[in-house]
Automatic annotation (TrEMBL):
This is 2-hydroxyglutaryl-CoA dehydratase. GO terms for molecular function: iron-sulfur cluster binding; metal ion binding. Gene3D superfamilies: 3.30.420.40. Keywords: Iron, Iron-sulfur, Metal-binding. Residues 6-258 form the ATPase BadF/BadG/BcrA/BcrD type domain. NCBIfam families: CoA_E_activ. The keyword rRNA processing does not apply. Its cofactor is [4Fe-4S] cluster. Pfam families: BcrAD_BadFG. It comes from the Bacteria.
């Protein structure tokens, strides 16, 4: 059997998973909507990976997790590595593009920029609470126009005169969009204007003060939108590279980190995690003045992990399974 490693990236909008072999090649992949339930989404992704993987050839030896629910999903899967998205994306991208200098990433509700020098992430920034320049913004505007967001790229590229749409926040953008529709702007010009606004919003907020140097790699679900890719290239004046698996880069980086980790898993990984019931519970510790909010994770009623305590008094004994 060949060694394989699983990486999972659980975000607020989508959950991504990959299985890689010892050479770092992706041998199974999955991309599903989180739908407000990260534990269930993680289980569904694991089931899809199980179906896609050739079990006569590969055996998963270790797991790595990233994303907003990385700690929770890491507890579920017995992960040997739990890392933030900046680290995971940087590790995954530099593996595929050793010379990369700038990583642009736009997801469903957040976005980030990572500046790389010599294969090491030296600076980064993430968006604020406003989601005007993210995938959810484009999805809501597509709905308003009666389109599927997947159509945006092709439609945007057909425009010769993109409309100027203010995208500094969703309220202004929607107001401006309605105004352009009422003025009779062509649909392709409005769509191209939205793509252009997303790129401008990103560069003026997330990328503000950052030195964007080529080679530039664009990742996240929005990178699949050819209209936004074109808008970035026009704004930056340099080529922007998009990988076929760019939307899976966080999960890919998590898998690579798991492969390189010296930590030995407490138990062999099993795909039957999808058959267990996982629940979380918040407990306020009253054993000192901190009153920490301790998060406890249960698998079929048995506590398997906890975090949030700031001293040993709040430590919770968990099952070693």
């Amino acid at each position: 059997m060949k060694d394989a490693y699983l990486g999972l990236d659980t975000g607020s909008i989508s959950t991504k998973g990959v299985v890689i072999d010892a050479d770092g090649t992706i041998v199974a992949r999955s991309y599903l909507w989180t739908e407000g339930n990260p534990t269930e989404a993680a289980q569904r992704v694991v089931r899809e990976l199980e179906q896609a993987l050739d079990h006569t050839v590969y055996q998963v030896r270790a797991v790595g997790t990233t994303g907003s629910a990385r700690r929770l999903v890491g507890a579920m899967l017995g992960a040997v590595v739990v890392k933030n998205e900046i680290t995971a994306h940087a590790v995954g991208t530099t593996r595929l593009h050793p010379d990369v200098r700038t990583i642009l990433e736009i997801g469903g509700q957040d976005s980030k920029i990572i500046c790389v020098d010599g294969g090491i992430a030296v600076d980064y920034a993430m968006n604020t609470l406003c989601a005007a320049g993210t995938g959810s913004f484009l999805s809501s505007q597509a709905h308003r126009l009666g389109l599927e967001v997947e159509q945006f790229g092709e439609i945007a590229l057909s425009s010769e005169h993109p409309a100027n749409i203010a995208a500094r926040c969703t309220v202004f953008a929607e107001s401006d969009l309605v105004h352009k529709i009422q003025m009779g702007y062509a649909r392709e010009d409005i769509v191209a204007g939205l793509c252009k606004a997303v790129a401008a919003n990103y560069l003026n907020n997330v990328g503000k003060g950052k030195r964007i140097v080529a080679p530039v790699v664009f990742q996240g679900g929005v990178s699949k939108n050819a209209g936004v890719v074109r808008a970035f290239e026009d704004a930056l004046g340099i080529p922007v590279l998009v990988d076929a698996d760019g939307h899976l880069m966080g999960a890919y980086g998590a898998a690579l980190l798991a492969a390189d980790s010296p930590v030995i898993p407490k138990r062999p990984f099993s795909f039957d995690v999808g058959s267990f019931e996982f629940k979380t519970r918040e407990v306020e510790c009253a054993k000192c003045a901190n009153h920490c909010e301790v998060i406890c994770v249960y698998q079929d009623g048995t506590i398997i992990d906890s975090w949030g305590n700031r001293c040993e008094k709040g430590a919770v004994k968990v099952s070693s399974r």
